[in-house]
Each structure stands twice: as structure tokens, then as C-alpha cells.
Amino acid sequence: MPSLDDVTRPPGRPPRILYGGDWNPEQWPEETWTEDVRLMRRAGVTSVTLGVFSWARIEPSPGKREFDWLDRLMDLTHTHGIGVVLATPTSSPPPWMGRLHPETLPRDEDGRTEWWGSRQHFSHSSEVYRQYAASITEDLAARYAGHPALTMWHINNEYCTYDWGDEAARTFRRWLQDRYGTLDALNTAWGTDFWSQRYGDWAEVLPPRRAHYLKNPAHVLDFRRYTSDQLLACYRAERDIVRRHTPDLPVTTNFMPFWSGQDGWTWAAEEDLVSVDVYPDPRDPGSAAYNAMIGDLTRSQAGGGPWMVMEQAAGAVNWRGVNHPKPYGLNRLWALQAIAHGADAVCYFQWRQSRQGAEKFHSGMLGHAGERGRVFQETVRIGEDLARLGPRVAGSRVTTGIAVLHDWNSWWAGDQEGALSRRVDHAEIVGAWHRALWDAHLPASFAHPHHDLGCHRLVLVPHLYLLDDTAIDNLVAYVRGGGTLVCGFLTGIADQDDRVRPGGMDARLCELLGIDLLQEWWPLDEGEHVDCGTFRGTLWSEELIAAPGAETVAAYRGGELDGLPAVLRNGRARYLTTLPEPAALSRLLSAVAEEAGVRPVVDGLPADVEAVRRGDLLFLLRHGHDPVTVTLPGRHRDLLTGTEIAGALKLERYGVAVLEVSGAQVPEPADAGTREEHGPGARPVPEGRR
Ligand code: GAL
After folding, report:
1. Class for domain 609-661, per CATH?
2. Which of 2, 160, 318, 530 could join 361 in a cystine, given CB atoms 3.0 to 4.6 angstroms apart?
């Protein structure tokens, strides 16, 4: 399998970064298409994604095919040297499908139908839907397989649907039969003897529909696992069809960022290239750190190799309560930030802003203001920057010494109605820990709890409520092998069936973390804090007795938990029984990182200046409004401006510098940590032809 760049780059041209976006030209008269490609060339666009929502155009009535318009578009892009990421249009079936085959429409938890008139109104379990999807994918792939513009496949769009309907009930039962074999095993796994839920016949097992009171959490957990797997089966079916026609082209599907609906590790392993859609709020001061986290997670899902921003917005989106544009420079800053975190492609939704339809107020690379508009001017500027960076950046890797563990199974299990605190949110806790690292200028990667962790100097477990035996053994082996580990509260409380471990926490983990007895959990209210001596804890606290030999690094002061451990240390393993406030968490993690031999990429950086090392380049990104000066040892050349930097570097508002550095002057994090590699579950963007 070739790399993204291998297939998208015209022969003889140096490596480059893919740049472009969703192009939905069926909205426009054909004269506009010609104008579009002219402007794309001006902006340095190298790739467009066609066909994402084109099903009704290609198949206006059942079985009919209209490809002429798409033929003309494929030819047009090729003539202008622009590659095509061709999407299977299966995320938005035409209205005729719902009318003729109502069973293709999904049902919500209350049994209500999700009708056509928007998009993504397909039941992942509908045989009829799957047949139509396979048929159009087959014809699309057969028609364009040899087309010179075709560079890559984009399957469906943001798989994210749920279905509680009757056909889903049947496929849910089949999925459960595969998992458990017998109804007895299912009854045991779900603990159905509580509340008289014991099933006597498979026909009684339903998706977890609207019910009177709390649902069985193991049932809900399996429904989430099943939903992820059902959607994955839809993806696989289409992927296998396109692969048959174009075995050399990479296949992807665009993830929503840090989205709970799909097990991102399992999905990523099924893709040739991992891609994600990122839409941070321009007004949110946390957006830069959020982008960094999405970049780190996506790169890690790609096995540490290059990944793709499939969609982002050039300006405002139109789905928040209030939708703010990006001030000039912010679009460029975030595009280059993605590159710093390992992306080899930055693309947008969408090329030309719509004049009609649900997203006419959503920005495009070419906004309503047109060619003279500042959004388009920035589109051109980004194209120039990417063209400059491509030959040096494309294909290079980001190295980090820290891994943050994350697992969707644990997220799903922890997110249950009967939890002790609704305030405990997996994504927020993971975000808080990653943010703490980001604030300390410590680059990080993500890993699954089953991955080989030995290559990371420091492993963090912000919130893995569910850990199976393999994961627990992996953590124990990691620390025994010399690794440094920090676990957050509620680590490993439940097994794979969401059954609380005997004693409230697995005995192996208790031994590892230095816990003698876990007495009670004491969740905290909004605004409530616990005094931990040198810092304040939020969200959660725990009443536990330390094992002999474990050190209470910080203790609660006052209240019911007075004197009990807030932070417990047992050799190279630490356990945090609360969530320290942001600055304290950042200090704590920096201190542990330093002890583990992991240092910031650049020392003494001002806040809101991010430094990321990618290959032999150092990206410095100014996420703030005022200019700042950064002091760096040695002399460096800025690839964006071609200027020599000696000593001090001034970064303007939203400024970016990409410096060529020698290892001695700015150490690669690998010097302090190790190269990021994953075990089973994730795979790098393949480099050779399949
Ligand atoms: C994405 C979607 C795009 C577009 C975009 C708007 O979720 O894939 O088609 O709707 O959001 O922000």
C-alpha cells in the first residue's frame, strides 16, 4: 500500500501535503465548475473530495445510474492536475429509498422513525439499505477504477447513527449470540438476576429501548459495542468492494473527533489512512489544546504515522448556538498545527460555500465574499505555506515520550445512568489530563491499554473505569519493566462486563498502586473542592487506606477524608484519588515526566506558544492575540519565511515558525522518551504498494 503522498503526487514531483476539501459542485451550474478549478489552482488545492452526498444525483430512481456529470467533473479535475478523493455516497440515501423501503429508516429509542429530509437516515442493519449501498459502491468503483484523477476512497461520511428498530433488534441478537454463545452466558454477563431481567428466549432480547427506570448498564454497554461493530460492518462491505477494483488506492472514512459512537482503535485498524473532521470553536480559549489532543489521538490511531484532516472549517460553522468566524490567521494557525501533530493532509468542508440548503451559513474555503474575500485570501496563503513545507514535512514522524491511555469500552461503560456522579465525564477528564501536558509543553501520544507500552517513558491513565484482565496485566508488566505510571481515580473498577471487581478495585491494581483498602467514593458537587495541602482537588475524592510501604504524597486536609491519601505513590506508580485543578495537575504531571526523563521540547516557552517536533523540524505556534518573543539556542532557518533566526524569534498574533533544527540544539523528544509505536490494534499508514 502506498503512502497518501505516493498516490496523490504527480510523477516526478517532490513530496507534498494534500490540500483541498469537499467539493459539492452538483449545487452549481457547470460554468461555476470551471471557475472553481481556476480558483483551486490559484489556492494551491491539490485534492477535492467528490460525491459525499451525491446518491440521489447518481441514482435518481432505483437502479438507474447517472454518471455523466461525475465523469465530466473527474475529467475536469484531472485536466487541472487536481486529485480526487471519491466518496461512496451512502450516508444519505435518496428519498425514494425511504418511501419504497421504510425499513431502511432508523428508529430512535422511543420507536420514532428518523425520516428523510436531512441526512444519515439509514439503518445500519437494513438488508435493503446494505444491498443498495453495495450496488452503488460497486458501480462507482467499476466506473472510476482506472480514472487518472482518482487518488483515494472515502467511505460514507462520519458513521454515527444508532438504531433501536426491529431489524436492529434481530442483528443485535445475532451479535450477542456471537459474543456469548448461549443465553445463560448472556444472563451471567449482564447480571440479569437483578430486577427480574433474566431472559428465557433470545426473542426477548431487545435493543435498550425507552424503559421505566435505569436500564441494565451491561446491556447498554453491549448495545454500544454492537452499534460500533454494525457500522464497521457497513464500512467494511464498501471498503472491500472498492479495494477489489482499486487494490492500490488507500481507503478511509472520516471520524468525528473524539466521538463516543465508534471504537476508534478497532476502526482505525481497518483503514489504510486515518482521517478526522475537526471543528473547534474559534472563541473557545481551550480550542488550541483540543486541536492538539485530536491530532495526537488521530496520529496514534494511525500507529504514529501520518494522518489526514478530512474536514475543518475555513471560518464559522453553523451548528453551535452562536457561530463565530475565525479571525484572520486562525485558520492558517490551526491548519499548520495539524501538520505539526503529524497530518499529511489538511482539507475542509467545503470548497465553495453553499447558497442553498442547511449549510449555507457554514463557511467554505471560498466564501460568499468570493475571490476578494479575506477567507479566500487566507485559503491561498495556506496553500502557499503547505507547498513550501510539503517536501520537508510529508511522511515524517512526530515523537513523544508520553502515552495517554484511552479506550472506548471504558468510556461507554463509565457513561451510565446509575453512576455515582453524572459530573464524571470520560472525555472531559481525558481532555483535562492532555491539557495539563499541553500547558506544560509536553508532547504526548495516545495508546490502547492493550498496546505494548514499553516504548513510552511515562504512561498516564486519566480515566479507565473498565479494564479487562489483559489490560491490568499489561499495566503491571509495564511498571515492572521500568515504566512510570500515573492513574486517575476510578481506574479499573469494572471488568469487561461492567462488573465491579471484588473489593471495588482489582487486587493486582491495588498492589501496583499501593492501596490496602478502598473504602468509599466521595464525589464532589459543582464548585466543591477538597483541600489537598499543596493543591485543590475537584470532581471526586476517595476514602482509601494506603498499603504499608506506599507513600502518601499529598493528603486531604479537613473534612471526612482528613489525612487520607489524595496522591498515593508506590514506587514508579502513582494514584490520584481526585482531579487536581488544572495548574496543579500540570505541575504534578511535569514533575513526574521529568523524573521519568521526559522534558518539554523547548524550555521556558511562554504560555500559549506550542512547540512540536516533527522529524527534524520544530513547529512553534502562537495561540494568542499578542506578539511574543521566544528565545532559542543556536541559529535556525524558518522554512515559511526563509529567514535565519538567531537567539530570539518574534511570533506575531497567530504566528507560526517552522524551524530546521539540529538535534543538539533542540533535543528530539525521543532523546528523552522513545519513538511512538503501537502494538496490535493500530497500524501505520502503509508505505509500500499492496
Ligand atoms: C461534518 C460533515 C460535513 C458538514 C460539516 C459541517 O460533520 O461531515 O458534511 O456537515 O460537518 O461542519
Report:
1. mainly beta
2. 318
